[in-house]
Specification:
heterodimer; A: mainly alpha; 3 strands; rod-shaped; B: alpha+beta; 8-stranded antiparallel sheet; 7-stranded antiparallel sheet; 15 strands; about 25% helix; about 40% strand; elongated
């Protein structure tokens, strides 16, 4: 899976637990900064810093001005992360499925030769 | 132990624990069947969820697989499902009849979870008290471990196979076997070298129509048939450790611990993977990339799936 070698992408943005928490809160709908501050227990500067990262990679958009800036999730930008997250878990799920089938084949052939 | 002066209800067993996670995460751990299966049950048990409908009147059927090989089929019915703080269900089978009330108290980002099991009679409660109290504490231990793994970004998977541990161990450590299951569909796995001893290396190539990728396992511990520990890395044809081709921040070394535990004539395989000798960036990259991250924000992914289904 080829991607540009930059740290400013969605994968690195979601690697941070506080940012995942913000995305989770925004998944339910757009929220003003104040809501996000009280819901996460982080300070306003911390929340603003994390939102800036999320905006840079396009995961979050903002509208409005002053106190009424509303942040929203852009789910399309999460798709590559979503695909990869499912992919890694699925990689092992499929491996273990193949292991299961292979073990059955061995036992049917009578070649399991347990010690 | 209830005495005549004890105000505690003689039909009730109460257990509680403080967990280092917010209520929303603990509630999800209780009500997402995939997550539930990772920790529900006493020590040494695994769980298969057959049916799970977390609504009043909804059914929850699951089997607890005991370490001695016995299976316990459980049937419950939900009474109340009120996120993020309250879950009530009625346990009908096996053996015991009780109503379980689970409450989650917010302790500023941590959660106090209380289980109240109310039996139909004080006698039934007394008979169950010792085993249930022990089982509850073990179950809390398991939840705490899963929450800690998720917070730390550790990847874990548990699966049962219809084969004995000795065969599982061989199939993981012998080149002739690995090629049959380790590579993904559509890929050919070739083991270039394998020295299954502490300090030895298994070096392999994965070839697909899109190209080839090399990897290696540096063995740390081999204790047949119980336990296998190795450090997984991406590699090149010469066998050196290299960066992942898809992400410069992917950890160079992922410590992988695999255990094979007999359960009757079957094996419960548990695998645990976490970065080792890693930078903070590598640990963050690993934690962000695997399925257990979903436990931290399953809601986001569900919304995303709904959204993507709508635009396609």
């Amino acid at each position: 899976m080829a991607r540009s070698p930059t740290t400013a992408d969605a994968f690195n943005a979601v690697a941070e637990p506080a940012r995942r928490r913000l995305l989770d809160l925004l998944a339910a709908g757009e929220r003003p900064v104040g809501d996000l501050v009280s819901a996460t227990g982080l300070t306003q500067p911390q929340v603003s810093k994390h939102l800036a990262v999320l905006r840079t990679v396009g995961l979050v958009t903002v509208r409005g001005d002053g106190q009424r800036r509303l942040y929203a999730l852009d789910p399309d930008k999460l798709k590559p992360v979503h695909d990869w997250v499912k992919g890694f878990e699925r990689l092992w799920a499929e491996r273990l499925d193949r292991l299961d089938e292979y073990l059955k084949t061995l036992q049917q052939e009578g070649t399991d030769g347990d010690e | 132990m209830a005495t005549s002066d004890d105000p505690a209800d003689p039909r009730e067993i109460v257990s509680s624990r403080v967990f280092d996670a917010p209520r929303e995460l603990v509630f999800r751990a209780l009500t997402d069947p995939t997550h539930l299966a990772r920790w529900w049950g006493p020590a040494g048990f695994t769980c298969t969820v057959h049916e799970h409908d977390p609504r009043p009147g909804g059914v929850w059927r699951h089997t607890l697989h005991g370490p001695d090989g016995a299976d316990y089929h459980n049937e419950c019915e939900f009474v109340e499902v009120a996120p993020p703080g309250r879950l009530v269900f009625r346990h009908g089978k096996p053996v015991h009849h009780f109503t379980m009330t689970i409450t989650l108290a917010d302790l500023g980002g941590r959660t106090e979870m209380t289980w109240r099991l109310r039996f139909d009679s004080a006698e039934e409660c007394d008979r169950a008290r010792a085993v249930v109290t022990t089982g509850n504490e073990q179950n809390f231990d398991r939840l705490a471990a899963v929450l800690a793994d998720d917070a730390a970004g550790v990847f874990t998977v548990t699966r049962e196979f219809a084969a004995r541990p000795a065969l599982l161990f061989r199939v993981w450590t012998e080149a002739a076997h690995l090629g049959h299951w380790f590579g993904p569909k559509g890929c050919t796995l070739t083991v270039a070298a394998n020295d299954p001893r502490p300090g030895g290396v298994m070096h392999y190539k994965m070839a697909s129509p899109g190209g080839e990728m090399w990897g290696r396992w540096a063995y740390r511990e081999l204790t047949p048939p119980d336990r296998l520990v190795f450090v997984a890395s991406f590699s090149d044809p010469a066998g050196a450790v290299t960066r992942a081709p898809f992400n410069p921040d992917w950890p160079l070394e992922v410590l992988s611990t695999v255990t094979f535990t007999a359960r009757g004539d079957r094996t419960v395989l548990r695998m645990r993977a976490e970065p080792v000798n890693a930078t903070a960036a590598e640990r963050a990259a690993f934690a962000g990339f695997h399925g257990s991250m979903r436990q931290g924000w399953a809601g986001t992914l569900e919304q995303l799936e709904t959204h993507l289904a709508g635009v396609n």
